[in-house]
From TrEMBL:
Keywords: ATP-binding, Coenzyme A biosynthesis, Cytoplasm, Magnesium, Nucleotide-binding, Nucleotidyltransferase, Transferase. This is Phosphopantetheine adenylyltransferase. One of its GO terms (biological process) is coenzyme A biosynthetic process. The keyword Disulfide bond does not apply. It is an enzyme of class 2 (transferase).
Length: 177
């Protein structure tokens, strides 16, 4: 499928940390829309976070550097404000479970009523549907192996934060890059 270069989607999230499920949604969005703005957000309803906002922006940029139509920007406010500021056509949200849809649908209706920007839901591929940033933080904090769940720049950052390599000890045929 060839995307229309006239469309731009906003993919908002805290991305703390950015993982392979997020990357999957970005790649699907590029295929569908052409241009994507990843809005790295600060969510005051979530814990203060593992990685500060500026570092998350840098990590996400490194993870999507192979996608020339993707831009990454920090947006500390609401996703709907980022959508207006970036003048996007759509907001994209990844869905892992039916519960994600229930939460996201309420937000989508509110965002549309405020901004007129529609939300498009993209299901994560089957192999990515179990991944969550909270799950990755918990495993990494306990020195577990997460490099098969996150892009290489994030694996390196997590290893630096927790003081141990986050190595993948599985056979190379089973690894997810």
């Amino acid at each position: 499928m060839v995307a229309s270069s006239a469309l731009t989607a906003l993919y908002p999230g805290s991305f703390d940390p950015f993982h392979n499920g997020h990357l999957d949604v970005v790649e699907q969005s590029v295929e569908l829309f052409g241009a994507v703005v990843i809005a790295v957000m600060h969510n005051p309803q979530k814990p203060s976070g593992l990685i500060d906002l500026d570092r998350r922006v840098d990590l996400v940029r490194a993870c999507v550097s192979h996608l020339p139509t993707v831009r990454v920007a920090a947006h500390p406010g609401l996703a709907v404000d980022a959508a207006r500021a970036e003048k996007v056509d759509f907001i994209v949200k990844g869905l892992r479970t039916p519960g994600d849809f229930e939460v996201e649908q309420q937000m989508a209706h509110t965002n549309y009523s405020v901004s007129g920007v529609r939300t498009v839901y993209l299901p994560c591929h089957h192999g990515q549907s179990f991944i969550s940033s909270r799950f990755i933080r918990d495993i990494a904090q306990h020195h577990g192996q997460v490099s098969h769940l996150v892009p290489a720049p994030v694996a390196t950052a997590l290893a630096g934060i927790f003081g141990e390599p986050v190595a993948d000890h599985r056979p190379s045929s089973e690894r997810n890059s």
